[in-house]
Write a structure and sequence with these properties.
The chain is α/β, with parallel strands linked by helices and 613 residues long. It contains 23 helices and 17 strands.
């Protein structure tokens, strides 16, 4: 290459040599490397951002508006580019409108006309016979047809992600439910009949109920009637002693009720979302009392209600200080015996993670594992997954970061939304429009005795389990080492409930895919709570039970429910028989606690942590 001014010719290599080194330039200006601690710090949200999000969360009931907006945009954008789908929905709307007009013409003259829409089997809003009478039947049919159309419009849109489709469907369902004629006094035949019978006094009484509830909400008091069920007085009264306490839990040992007991004790790990005593309600509904009367030595974990200072308690702390220290205490108090471990809901998930870690150790104290409505696979974890995506979790984490915990009212609100017809609208109609308070019971009192969730633990729980499904995929770590559920070799008894909105039974059933041991699965009537609190003697209860040997072939849940015979009554006796069959001979009961610390008797059951508010 010759220079026109007569300078010497430069080769391409000479030109490359003169060009600056890009890496040297970046180094010269001090560009940070991508994986330094400084860069990691920059990725963290600023405190101001978190305070802003926490403030926003108060106005949006903890729901991320960005998450919901993304779901609706995904749905609307895909629907906009599918004219055939819009045409189908328009035709569907026209068909329903014509059917409704024909129904109106017939219903005006004939009260026995066949309805064109039926409520869902679990929808109890239209059970009153007045909904079959004009004009209330017209209101009902219009609403049900509209509800069906919106359900069709928010499902099955090609290209919309499954999560966004479910979020949109759920959100629209909540909005549609607010427009139900059952919520409008002059459109609800039961309300109008009550008003005629009582000359409108029901509205006066309902307004009084409303003022009472607002006063209790402002003061943080218990719902009306729940004061009749107090832990240690009317409920949680099975005799026992607190024999161990750490910062996170108290361990209760229940007093024997028989001269001899099965040698192997039962150790129960409840969920810490609510208080432990759902398994020790009134004596007639107490699973603990039932076991003690059958000759079992029972230990129960009672979790601490965390405060802002406990914000850094993590999932590992619950495993170590809850399950492993609890097992160690039971082994000390009942030496040389294997333990029947039981976990309820999140407590069962925690127990399975701990059991997988124990399986790696030379000595394992477990004799069997029982799971009550507990999941290990969160791929299809029900409608709680609606509140679990990256945007929503970031929003929730910022809300917890400000407080140090997830408030009990925020947790209860999310659960109530999943069953808004039963837990919100039905209660409001009866209390404020009909003017009647539903009689309280022990389960309702327990349900209102909510707890808080530590910031770090709840964040880890949602991200590691719900979002990333680490336990079933073999990525979950205990004591710094990944654990595998297939390492668990003790027999397992798992209970799912047919109407569970928290842990769907098909999700609980997935345990069969991840374990390499004998599994007995029970599917019982009822929901997440009432299906577990299932004492003998209720004629409306039924269950299905079947066992799968270690090397048996997997049966899909749809085939399982069709082929396993139904049995009437409670599943409690079947479970107790299963435990007793795995247990040894009966012996004199062990002593209550120990004479030496740290397992000395500290106080009577139900202990002190259960009374924390």
């Amino acid at each position: 290459m010759a220079d026109i001014a007569g300078r010497k010719e430069l080769s391409p290599n000479d030109l490359n040599a003169l060009a600056p080194d890009p890496g040297a330039l970046l180094k010269a200006v001090g560009t940070p490397e991508l994986h330094t601690p400084e860069m990691a710090e920059l990725k963290k949200p600023y405190p101001f951002d978190r305070l802003l999000h926490a403030t926003m969360a108060r106005a949006t009931a903890g729901i991320s508006p960005i998450s919901v907006s993304m779901a609706f945009f995904d749905w609307a954008a895909h629907l906009a580019v599918y004219p055939s789908r819009r045409s189908d929905l328009a035709r569907c709307a026209a068909d329903k409108w014509l059917a409704y007009l024909a129904y109106l013409c017939q219903a005006a003259a004939d009260q026995d006309v066949v309805p064109v829409a039926e409520p869902e089997p679990r929808d109890r809003r239209f059970k009153h016979e007045g909904w079959s009478v004009w004009p209330f039947n017209a209101y009902q049919q219009a609403f049900l047809l509209g509800e069906q159309w919106w359900d069709e419009a928010t499902k099955g849109i090609h290209g919309v992600s499954r999560h966004h489709s479910e979020v949109v469907n759920f959100a629209v369902r909540q909005l549609v439910d607010t427009l139900s004629p059952s919520n409008v006094p002059w459109m609800n035949p039961e309300v109008m009949e009550t008003a005629r019978t009582h000359c409108g006094a029901n509205f006066v009484k309902g307004f009084g109920n409303f003022l009472e509830d607002m006063s209790l909400l402002a003061d943080g008091g218990l719902p009306p009637g729940n004061g009749e069920f107090r832990p240690g007085k009317e409920i949680a009264i099975t005799p026992g002693k607190v024999v161990y306490r750490n910062h996170l839990m108290e361990l209760i040992q229940y007093s024997p009720a028989t001269d001899k007991v099965y040698a192997e004790p039962v150790f129960i790990v409840p969920a810490w979302i609510m208080k432990y005593y759902i398994l020790d309600l009134s004596p007639q509904n107490s699973l603990v009392k039932y076991l003690v009367n059958k000759g079992h030595t029972v230990f129960m974990v009672s979790w601490r209600n965390p405060e802002a200072a406990d914000r850094d308690l993590g999932f590992e702390d619950y495993i170590q200080m809850g399950v492993l220290e609890g097992l160690s205490a039971v082994s000390h108090l009942v030496p040389n015996q294997k333990i029947h471990a039981v976990g309820y809901c999140l407590g069962g998930t925690l127990l399975m993670a701990a059991a997988a870690a124990l399986a790696k150790r030379p000595a394992n104290d477990l004799k069997s594992i029982t799971l009550f409505a507990a999941q290990v696979d969160f791929e299809e974890a029900g409608e709680l997954m609606l509140f679990t995506d990256d945007s929503q979790l970031a929003y929730t984490e910022d809300q917890m970061w400000e407080q140090g915990y997830l408030d009990k009212h925020q947790m209860a609100g999310a659960f109530n939304m999943l069953r808004s017809n039963d837990l919100i609208w039905s209660r409001l109609i009866h209390s404020y429009l009909i003017g009647e308070r539903r009689p309280p019971n022990d389960l309702m009192a327990w349900n209102s005795d909510a707890t808080r969730m530590p910031y770090r633990m709840h964040s880890e729980y949602l991200r590691k389990l719900y979002l990333n499904n680490e336990l079933s995929e073999g990525h979950f770590k205990v004591e710094g080492k990944a654990v595998a559920l297939r390492d668990i070799k003790v027999p397992i008894f798992a209970v799912g409930t047919i109407s569970d909105h928290v842990a769907p039974w098909t999700s609980v059933y997935m345990l069969n895919l991840y374990t390499d041991t004998d599994v007995t699965f029970v599917l019982t009537s009822g929901g997440h709570n009432a299906g577990i609190v299932n004492p003998p003697g209720n004629p409306k209860r039924h269950y299905q039970i079947a066992s799968k040997a270690e090397n048996a072939k997997y049966i899909h849940p749809s085939k399982w429910i069709e082929t396993v015979p139904r049995q009437e009554g409670s599943w409690w006796p079947a479970w107790q028989t299963w435990i007793s069959r795995l247990s040894g001979e009966q012996t004199p009961p062990p002593s209550m606690g120990s004479e030496a610390a740290p397992y000395r008797v500290l106080c009577d059951a139900p202990g002190t942590y259960v009374h924390q508010t």
